[in-house]
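yo

u said u wanted the structure for the complex thing, so here. seqs first:
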Amino acid sequence: MIAEHNAQVGESAAATVDIAHRPAESTRQSFIRITMQLIDELGESGVRVEDIVEKSGHSVSSLYHYFGNIRGLIEESQMSRLSELPTGAVNYFLEAVKKATTTEELCQHIIDSLDMIFDLKHATSRMGRLQAVGNANMNPVFTAEVAKRYRVAVDESVKALVLARDRGLISPDVDLEAYSLWIATMSSARTIMDIDNDPVATEKWMDVTRTSVLYYLGLIP
Amino acid sequence: MPKKNNTSVVKSNESTREAFLRVAVQAIDDDGEQGVRLEKVLAEVGVSASSLYHHFGNLRGLTNEAQAERFARTVFEDIDQLKSLISKTANSQDFVTEIEKQFRGLMSKNRVLLRLRRVNALGSSYQNPQLKSSLVVIQRRVIDSLALALMMAQAKGFIPIGVDVELAAAWVISTIFGGASLEIVDDSALMDKWNDFAVESFKLALGLEVA
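structre next:
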């Protein structure tokens, strides 16, 4: 769901102009939102003070007041981009697991949610997150934030899978933490296929992913 | 501004081009892409700006090539090592043991920086089509090279004939890459769990017996 939201943010550059002065949004928030959007469109290196000032309608001195410098603003914006996943992807997966009442339904929901999460239309937001994660190892605050996101995602996923296990839908022998960790990393793994964008290879890769996701829960032999 | 260590001036066995790349790779490793600054690079390599333009077009060109280098570093050597190991292995059982050892080596703690730099390099290709296309070329070569190694194992009967080695190679490489994004969490107990899980998924992808 959040991944979808991400994609929409990227697509609706025009709409953002209209909401540049939302009353509920603080100056600080509007700086971050506009910078996130500029990073989505141009990458970190394309973010320029002039553009931010123009789009936000705030002054340069106000930018320095809140963020120290452009670097500070970029880092906070990257952190906000990061915070949207893997939690978002895992939430979607969770809803699917919770809805299921039979093993067949569970399989179907899991595959549907995987296909949705891994859809090609989310390639840009996957790549954007990867960029944020890739830059994070230079920055301890970022690193802590990523660590927190992963833990939340994994804990939530384990909780949902425990529900399914209690209902007898999945094998009792699965290490649900290891499984959830693995799922959480598959979105980054997918970027390796995304960059090449070879539809045949990608579909084959998705097939292995679908099979593995079900196999490890003991849903298929 | 010259750096405190004087190892930076062109080494006798390296070309100017290689020296540029070495300095730029180091700068990105230390400070990210914004660490690749014209004056600093020129001072460390000890040549004029025209030399940089000759070899790389501009500073962006140098940064892109340095990122490509960071993306590919050690990968081909690792796969060559795997190939020589496969040619030395006598039976299927040894193959399973050895390949697991290799995979665990690739995912070991002491290589964490290498893996994170690879994630950083690929992440930097976001909205940088020139870098992205270089990385795609490298990525294809990596997958082809690993697929070739697996094909050697298949020819020796270690991997079942029905296994699509190219797909298995892509699976292994993408999974290791995905794991690297978890690594900044820096929790070795979690990482050990992830590694165990990943190794099982590799065996499954290679059609080997899963424990």
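Chain B has a mean pLDDT of 88. Chain B touches chain A through 47 residues (CB under 8 Å).
cya
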